[in-house]
Structure formats: structure tokens, C-alpha cells
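FAQ: What does a ligand-bound record look like?

Like this one, built around adenosine-5'-triphosphate:
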Amino acid sequence: MRAQKSTKTAKTTDTATPFVKVENFGITFAGKTIIRDLSFEVQKGEIFGLLGSNGSGKTTTIRALLGLYEPDQGSLTIDGAPFSPNTKRPRATSSQTANSPQKTHITVGYLPEERGLYKKETVYDTMLYFAKLKRLKKPKIWIKNYLSRVGLADNLKSKVDQLSQGMQQKVQLGITIMNNPDLLILDEPTKGFDPVNRRLLMQIIHELHEKGTTIILITHYMDEVERLCDHILLLKDGIAHAYGTVKDVKSDFDLPTLDDIFLRVYGANTEHNHNFERITDNLDQAPQKPKGDY
Amino acid sequence: MRNIFLVTQFEVIRSIKKLSFWLMAIIIPIFLIAYIFAAALVGYNTEESLSSGTKTVDLRLGIYDAPQYLEIYSFENERKEVQNLQQFDSEEQGIEAVKNRELDVLYVIPDNFVDSHKVSIYTKPDHNSLFDDYSHPISTLLDATAKSHVDQTDYNVIKKDLNYTPVVLDADDDHVVDQSERISEVIAPAIGLGVFYILIVVFSNRLTVSMVEEKENRISELILTSVTPRQLIAGKILSLLILCLIQLTVLVVPFLVIYFYAITNADIPAEYRNISLDPISLLQSLTLVVASYFFVVACCVLISSLVPTAKDASSFSAVIFIPVLAPIFFISLFASKTPILLVDILCICPFTAPVSLFLRQLFGHLPLTTYYIGLSTLIISSIIIIYYAAKIFHRNALNTSRKLDLKKLLSERRETWQ
Ligand SMILES: Nc1ncnc2c1ncn2[C@@H]1O[C@H](COP(=O)(O)OP(=O)(O)OP(=O)(O)O)[C@@H](O)[C@H]1O
Ligand SMILES: [Mg+2]
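The answer part, i.e. the structure of the complex:
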């Protein structure tokens, strides 16, 4: 593992222009500021960990990056331009990636946090639809091969709503990694996976990374982050609280694990810590004094 | 373009794969045929009663017999239904009597009857539905007269070549309209209104449900990173159009079969036999159907961009029907030819314009300027609505709650946002 990681970092350092660039990004929902002023960069070919507690705005940031939310301030670009599905334009960065070099536009694979599919369609029809939209070259062969590799070969003709949650998630993952995306964004990909499937997912991430795919990973599992990520960013109160390589962040905080850093940033073992209060006692009594946001 | 095509293809195929689509497609024409059959049956019954004389007794009949063709004695010998037949000295007098409602039906036998074998039958609209046939009393008389003439050729003429021209005096008296002309004028707006009705009842709901589907099932993120919102909307609208055409084909084929069967086999009145469609009114109706359809489509897209679930979408799209179908309740206003302000307003307001314009065309007095104004309001408002709907659709694609931030939804787009 260690050896692999050092080759990865070596690969990323030689790229000068960032592949993903977020500058002074801010967004509010109904008067509530979610992201205040966020700037970060993701280099081509690296695995970037986007971390933060529940509700800190990780998903919101990704949605804004993909044009699903409109930012109130700042700019979010992929390869030098705001993301738009299927816009054909010359690549800003020269592509030495192993991805099909004839591609004329940036492809993005996004596994959203909310896992929805067309419920009444079959697995095959759904995947074929997205495969065509993503201009996959040999969609039918690809889908069959993928499904048999993830153990869903028998479910080719099943309706999506007849699948278990984890199985549906594999279908979505397939849709996400179709066409070897240049940028892969995974929002809590291991959520709901058993250890076997988690291993499978890690393998897929690893393989794509080897092929030169840039990956942004959102997860709450710090062991995954330590194992996979080159750079990380810790979101809190709408700004970046920690940003850098895993090693740098650890030495900045002078703590041995990312778990410890996470707990420190989010207020565990400090005076305004909720964890010292008992949680399940006196739930039926009115609170004594109003509390802050966290 | 390719993406729009792919979305369309996907949506069409998954719809026609469903049994419910075909059930709907078949049930609608069955209902319509049943309805028309019932209407025809009612019409047939009144004809029956007319010929048996029970109803004609109540009608006040008049006649202007220019060539003095009928022989008076036949009046006395015939059934009592023609005994109160009032004789007029001129055609104008008789028509005046019909206009003043002193008379229900006037038969005019013209000077050249012996050559033309033509009899005109004048009525007011309320005494002449499309199914009514007032020729029976006069044919009884002509028949009796011809029998009394020993001349065999004369009798044959009466039996075979007799030509009735029904004439309806319209509500405002100054127009005398040939019945067969009326039918050909009415047929285009009537079909247009019917088609529009089917489209909005069946397909507006289908469209809203389909537009909300991604939002409701949390597929928005997955799909909107593969196609742009506009491509998705365009694809869905296009797929709906194709489904509509499939539906209309299912609808039209049995009608054509019945029509041709009726023409070749059934004994239908001459005026229905050679209906030629008036090309201008056909074109008007066609443009109206298209414009109205797109207006409703635009409204449906707007609704579905605002609401989070298909259930909300359905209930809101039902709300659109109320103003759209409202003009039907004012149908008597549309029948009148005198200008009424309310009618003009209804024709110009985009929500009520579709049905209003069809109704006016149906009653035969749609001024060209009103038509153009109504049509352009429909088109312009559709474009405006669809523009904002697409914008809101994009901004609201991930909002699964009912709360709306309208200010944000309608604000100007930032340059850095696609
Ligand atoms: N469409 C929206 N309307 C209003 N508020 C929103 C909307 N989307 C997100 N928020 C708010 O933004 C905040 C951040 O949400 P977000 O989903 O980005 O968090 P997250 O970091 O992904 O959390 P989690 O780890 O639980 O997934 C939350 O407080 C949420 O209530
Ligand atoms: Mg999230």
C-alpha cells in the first residue's frame, strides 16, 4: 500500500495546471450560508478526499461543481471551464492519460449521494440508456461484462426496484464509471456496501486511478481516506479547515490519525462538546438554554 | 441533438412497452365511438318520430309552391301532419315567418322544379340539428301529387331524382347557410376541439408525471450530468408528441373505417356524403391545435419544474384544466354573432383562448383578426413560459421539498453557470 501511494503522489506533482479548481466558492440556501469562501484545487490523476461532518456542505460543493447548483459567488471549473454535459471543446490540459485519447471532451462520472434509478426499467435498459448518453463505444458488451464482474449477471433483465439497495448501487456505480471518465466523483460510495463489495469498490477505484482518472472521494471512513487519498480537505463552517496532503495535515495537527483530527476539528473533547452531556437522558424535558449551530 | 433523440427514444420505448399505454390508447376511441353511437341513436329516434308524424304535428310547417306543382286536394287527403301546412305567396314572406319564429319549417318549391327537382327546406338552427331530417312531410305530399299525375316519367322523377337542400337560417337571421356547407365548416373545428381535448386530458398529466420523475426518484443528479436540462425537457416533450401521434393514429383508423363503411353501405343523407373540407378552416384548426397544445405543454413543464412529486404535479395540472375548459360553460355566448366583450377577452387570454377560438370557429364567426391575435398570444406566452420553466427546472431539479425560493429561481443566471 505504502509503495503504491508514493508512486501516485509522484505522478501528480508534475502537472502544473489544476484539473479541478474551486475559487472563493460560496452558496446560501434560504438565507442560510452553507459554504462561505471555499478554494481548493485537484490535480490531474490524484485522489482527492473531501471530508467534513454531516451537513458541512460536501455534497453541495460537488453539485455546484457539476452545475446542478448555481453558486452565489466564486467559480468552479473542471479543466478550465464550468462543467456542462457533453460540451465538445479541446482539452485545456494535454491528455497523456491512458483513457481513450480520441475523446474530444472531458467526461465526468458522478456517483451521487442520492441513489435513484428508473424503478420500473430493467437493469440492462437503464444502463444502456446511460451508456448511449455517455457515448460508450460498445455499450452492450460493456454492460454484460461489467454486470458479470460485479456479480449481477443474472439480474440483467430484472427491474431495478426488484434489486436490493446494494445491488442498485452497483448498477449506479457501473453508470458512473462507464466510458472511463476523466474525472470520477464518488459521494460516499461505500455507504451500504458489505465488506466484500467494499473491497470490490476499492479495487475499481484503484484500477481507474491507475488508468489516470482523477478522483474526488467523499467519505466518512477515515481508513479509506488514509489508504487512498493524496490530498484532503476538511470542511467546517463553510470554509476549508484543513487542506493538504494527508501527511502534511497530520503533522500540522500533530495527531497520529485522521480520525483524531476529525474529532478535534469537530469539537470532541473540548469545552463546548456535546459528548460530555448524556444524550439519551431527559429527552422529554425542555432544553435549559438555547444552543448554537454545533 | 443526439442527446435529445436518445431521451426521446428512451421515453417513447418505455411508454409503449407498458400495457397501460395501450389500454388508454384503445379505451379512448372505444368511449368516443360509444358516445357517437349513442348520439346517433338519439338522432335516429327523432328522425323516426318525425317520419311517423308524431313530432311533425307539433311543428308549424309552411310552403311556398312557385310552380303550383302540388295539387290542393292532396292536402286534404293526406295525413293530418300536413293539414295545417300554411301557404305563402312569396318565398320572402315564408322566410320572414321562419325568422320570426312563426314557422318552424318552410318548404320552397322553386319555379324550375320540374327541371331541377330541387326543394329547399328552411329552418332555424334550434330546429335543425345535424341529425334531423324534415324532408318527410314534403316527400309525402310530392309523392301523392306525383301519383295523381298519371304521367309515369314524372312519378319516376319524384321517386328518384328529388333533391332536398336543407337551409339553416342562423341565429342572426341575415345569413342563410347551406346545410352541407355548414357541415364542412364545422367539421374542422369540431375535430380540432376533440383532438385538443384528448391531448390535454390524456397527455398533460402524462407529461407532468414524466417531467417530475427524475426529481421524485432522485435521478436528477445522474441524468443532469449526462444531458443538459434543456435537452432533457426537449426530449420529453418530443417523446410526448410521438406518443400523441400514436394515440391519434389508434383513434383515427377506426373512424376512417366506420366512415368509409358508412359511405359505401349505409343510407346516409346526401349532405353528409360529399363533405369537402374547407381548406382555410382546416388550416386554422390545425394551427390552433398545435399552438394550444404547446401552450398546455409549456404550462405542464412549468408546473412540473415547481413541484416535487408526480402527485402534486397531477393535482396542479388538473387546475389548469379549469380555465382551459371554462369557455365551454359560456357556449351560448359564442353562438351569438353580435360582438360580446367577454367572448373577445376569452379569445385573447392564453388560458381560455384555445377552446374559445375553436368554439367561435365552430359557430362560424371567428374574425380573422381575433384568430391572429389569439394565436399569437398563445405562441408568445408559450415561449415565455417554456423559457422560465426550463430555467426553473434546472434550478429546482434537486429540490425535493415543497418550499420554493422564487426570487432565486427567477434571478438572472450567473455567467459562470451553464
Ligand atoms: N436544496 C437545498 N435547500 C436548502 N438547504 C440545502 C439544500 N441542499 C443542501 N442544503 C443544506 O446545506 C447543508 C449542507 O448539505 P450537504 O448535503 O452538502 O451536506 P454534506 O456535507 O453532504 O452532508 P452528509 O455528510 O450528511 O452527506 C445542509 O445543512 C443542508 O440542510
Ligand atoms: Mg452529502
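Follow-up question: can I read anything off the structure? Yes, for example: Chain B has two domains: 61-159, 177-417.
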